[in-house]
Structure formats: C-alpha cells, structure tokens
Amino acid sequence: MNRPLAITLTALAVFLPPLATRGQRAAKEQSPAERRRRVADELNAADCAYWHDRLCDRLPEAQRHVEKALELDPSNRRALYLLARILYAHYGYGGAHDEETSADLARQTIAAYKRILRKEPRSEEAFRVIAAILRSRRENEDRQPDPGDDRGKGAREWVRRRASDESLPGANRALAFVDLAEDLYECSRDVPGEAKGGPGGVQATAEAQVRLGRARRCASEALEMAESAARLDRGLETAWQYKAAALRRLAEFAESDGDSGLKEDFLKRAEKAERRAKQVEAANEKSGRPGDTWLGLDLPPYNMATPAAAPDKIRLAPDQGSELEPEETTRQMIVTPGAGYETVVTTGVLNGLALSMPEPPDPRGAGEGRAGGEVRVRVVIDERGGVISARPLTGRGPLRAAAAAAARRATFPVTRLHCEPVKVVGVLVYEFAGG
Fold it and tell me: What CA–CA distance (Å, rounded) separates 179 from 175?
C-alpha cells in the first residue's frame, strides 16, 4: 500500500471513532429542557402540516416531524396520537393508492393505534379506528376470512373482544355493544327480494333462504347487543334506539311468518324502547351529557373555545370541574369561536413538559414534625410559554402560596393548534417533604 495513503487511513481510523463518540455523547447530554423544546417544535410543525393540508401532499412531511419527536420522546402521548392520525388520514385517501400500498398503510395504522392501546386500553379512538379499518378491509389482521364468512367478521370479532373485556369501564363496553348492535342490525336488513313476502314467506332459491336465515339471526343478536349496552349504561340513548330498531325488524319477520301475536309483542316492546330513548335524550340534554359519539373522548390536545377573560376567569368544560386529575382525559368541545371567544387547550399534569420549573421555597420553620404533602396548582400558560395565572387547588395552607409562587416562574414550549399559538390550562404538582 502507498505509505502516505496508509498513514492517512490510520489517522482517520484514530480520529473518527472519538468524533462519533463525541457526537453520541452530545446527544445524550442534551438537557431535558432542550429536548422538550425540540419535541414541541417537531410536533407543532407536524400539526401545522397535518391540519393545513390533509390531501396527502404534506402528510409525509407531518409524519417525518412526528417520528423525530418520538425519537426524542418515545412515550409522548401527543406524538403517538398524531402519528396514528396522520397514517389513518393517508390510508383514508385509498383512491390514491394501489392495493399493496393501501394494505401496508392499513397495517401501519393498526400498529400505531395498538401502540396507543397498550398504554391506554380505554382509548375509544384507537379501538374504533382499528374496527373501521378492519371493516373497510373486510379482513382480520391475523388471517384472511373464509369465503363463507359474514362481511366484516374481522371487525365484528375485534368489537366483541372489546365488549366482553370486563377490565374496561361499563361506558366503554356499552359503546362497543352499540357498535355490534348497529352492525348486526345492518346485517338483518340484507334480505334478497325473492325471499320477502307475506304470511309464510315465498318460495325462494336456496341461497336466498340462507341469507334470510342469517338476517333473522342478526336481528335477534342485534337485540341482545342493544340490551347489553343498555344494562351497562342506561343513559346511552343509542342503545335504546337500536333496541327499538331490532324489535321492529323482528316484528317484520314475525309478520312474514304469519305470527300476528308475536308481531304485536315485538311492536309493543319497540314502542316502549322508543319512549325510553326519548326520555334518555331529554335527560341527557338537561344534564349536559355529551352525545353518544366516540369522537373527541380522548383526543389530545383538548380544544375548547372559551370566553375571552382574565386568566383566573377562564373556565373549564362543564364536566371537568375545577380540578384536573393526573391522568385525566376529558371530552373535546369542538366549538367555532365567535366574538369574544378564544381557543384554549386544556390538559392534565404539565410537570413533564416544563422547560424550567423552579423549586418552591419552603415556608415552614426549622425543626421536626413539619407536615409535608402534595400541592396541585392550576396554571394558565400564555401563547409565549409563560405562566400568567397560578391558583392552588389542593395542599396545606402555608405550602399553597409557596407552590403558586414557584409555578408562576415556570416556563413552557409554545403550544400551537393548527399552526396558531394558543393558551394552555393544566396542573403543576409540587411535593413537600415532611420534617
């Protein structure tokens, strides 16, 4: 080998590893505050690209930004949801993809939402999007259905597992039972024309009779699913609506069989369920219970139009109350801000998002027997990341003022919603050690 070339290669071998090591060390030594700032910047850029153009043109750009954020913070909740939504939006424009690309996007989207479900088993968004994809693909992600399987069987089995999961709250299971009732009710309507008729039905082909038998079974199962939903959540309006619809469908089948007594029984029960549905609707409207929609149950950040007012006068959504639990998820109020309204993002505990969070001074005197404990402070963060309001929610008297004073000095990354900086309402938690 040429001697000068050998010397050059040796020098590179000596110096390049230390350079690489220094680069890796620099990444590891990046301060938590700087890492949080970078995560916020990547997510704001992703959010902007996603919301300003969801016609696929900027979705890859949004995905790159959110993947960078996840490299920095793999458990970031906002990043996990945003990645899943970007993939689902991309999948949704199926007409722009060939079958192979569409199938790959379906798998990626399901994987992204299952990642969320592992952390948040109650997530209605994750559960329902997976069900929607399985319905649209007409396949179970683990196997191709047999030719004789019912349509959407993969999705139906996915929803059944959700409905039967006793570790979930009744409200989540009730929504799954309603999904099953809806699916089965649509199945009950799939009756071929040649199988319809008056008393006793008409002579029909063997295939038509098979479909008719399946439709009858679907109507009976739809009734069972609706009743299960109503038992778990008696204030779920759609449970009573589908119960009534299934009963009316069964009445039609009884009529075709010439069984007038059974028909009248089904119709009476249907009318009773319809009256109950109206009562539930009126009660829910009076109490302010949101409708039976899953959309927005747990979508971060929580977008809320709030009357423009002094920071301490900003009010949370009616069902939130004045305190936020550490892991609380709230319903998203989608409101078009009008005159005198501004957009405020509400969330839970903010400790992990702060760029700086000074320690509170200890107001207690020296000596033994000092009572400690937790103090929770509700803060309002302005569009520049500064705290403009801090109000203690819990804690002992002398500790509350100290925690609030420290909270006012905390700083945060700017939060953007649809590219625009917004205020954020959340909680800072301070721990005071006992003496």
Answer: 6
Sign for the CA dihedral angle at 12, 14, 20, 22 comes to negative
* Digit-coded pLDDT (tens) for 292-324: 444 333 333 333 333 344 444 444 333 333 333
Tell me the C-alpha distance between 412 and 355, whole Å: 5
Give 377's strand partners.
392, 428
Lowest mean pLDDT among 8-17, 85-94, 236-245, 316-325: 316-325
Residue 4's φ and ψ, nearest 5 degrees, are -60, -40
Instruction: Tell me how far apart the alpha carbons of residues 91 and 103 are, in angstroms, rounded to a whole number.
Output: 9
Cα–Cα distances (Å) from 123 to 77, 236, 321, in that order, read 12, 18, 22
Which of 108, 104, 112, 110 lies closest to 131, judged by CA? 110
Instruction: Give CA–CA dist 234/379, Å, rounded.
Output: 37
Helix boundaries (H) for 138-234: 153-163, 170-188, 206-232
pLDDT tens digits for range 408-433? 999 888 877 766 777 888 889 998 88
Query: Which residues on neighbouring strands pair with residue 282, listed in sequence order?
Result: none
Angle between helices 237-256 and 260-287 (to 10 degrees): 170
Q: If residue 390 lies in a helix (H) or strand (E), which one and from where to where?
A: strand 387-392
Asked if residue 246 lies in contact with residue 185, where contact means CB atoms within 8 angstroms, the answer is yes
Q: What is the mean pLDDT of residues 191-205?
A: 54
